[in-house]
Amino acid sequence: MMRKVAVLGSTGSIGTQALEIIHANPELELHSILCNSNLDLLLKQREQYSPSVTAIAQPGGECPDGVITGQGILYKAIEGADMVLNAIVGSAGLQASLICRDMSITLALANKESLVVGGSLLSDYISAGRVIPVDSEHSTIFRCLHREPRPARSITLTASGGSARDIPIEKLQTAGVDDILNHPTWNMGARITVDSATMVNKAFEVIEARWLFDGLQIDVVLHPQSIVHSFVRLEDGSWKALLGKPDMKIPIQYALAYPGRGLELISDDSPLDWGTLEFTELDRLRYPAFDIVARAGKDGKTWPAAANAADEVAVAAFLASRISFGDIATVIEEVLTGHEALEIVDFQTVMEADRDSRIQAERIVIRLC
Ligand code: MG
Questions:
Q1: DSSP tag of 221
Q2: What's the pLDDT tens digit per position in 150-170?
Q3: pTM to 2 decimals?
Q4: For the chain: N or C, fewer Cβ within 10 A?
Q5: CATH of domain 3-134
């Protein structure tokens, strides 16, 4: 049986790689593509891969024949799929994850914000084994734990240190968009590249890991080469990991083929290509936003949703050269200081915290400009 896959966020970095994987893998079939606003690329993808459904959230004008838009496009793109790859950027991805949960469709999750802002809404779905992580660190831990009969002791996420790693601390505050968008090891979208530079991405990944691997202690180490894609520490103190040259196609394909479908060869690197592998402690002075966001994650409720909304606004403002790199942490911290957290009971609670925090963040950005 072919597996029909819906690719949400098809024009982004994960989405485009997923389409290539589905195309190359004889057991996978493309069901639908959906993107936010990149109509040109969406139409090229439709031409090349012939999905059953083509959808766009913001066509920015008239919508061409056969492309759907407006209310309900998420349902239409998901309905009829055997698996959904959620590679939507930002908290907008939560709604798609909740639809997958409600329709009981297996979710390959590349949208970490789903868990960051709404993890409690997805925890039963995760316990039922229906969420397969695509984030490289979590995919690694998932693979290391898969068919491991004994409980693990702890997990350790590796962090490349992002593009801010080698910029002198005194120049970081005023680093420009060009300095930051040039990531040393991973080739990713703009927002996640900035989030890697601030380490907000890693703090989000800690929150994500808490939901995916409930109850395990989580540590973070800096590993500039990005060859070890995280560790699991077993009961007897030994370590298990997945190694290789960084390539997002590995975790994407693993999730889409999970649990038992064939894996096409993606990478043919050798340990001789890796050079020296280093592991060091996270420099808290270099990455002030890490602790701020990780604390929000520990506090739970709507704190992470507020942190995420603040970060989305701050990163957009930084990318538009409205605020400096150092201001990103300031925006997040100030939004959290003013946030009144609520227990998450439904999607609405999350969206209200998200909306209020965006308004606050925008006010702070205007003040800092
Ligand atoms: Mg990651």
A1: E
A2: 889 999 999 998 888 889 999
A3: 0.94
A4: N
A5: 3.40.50.720
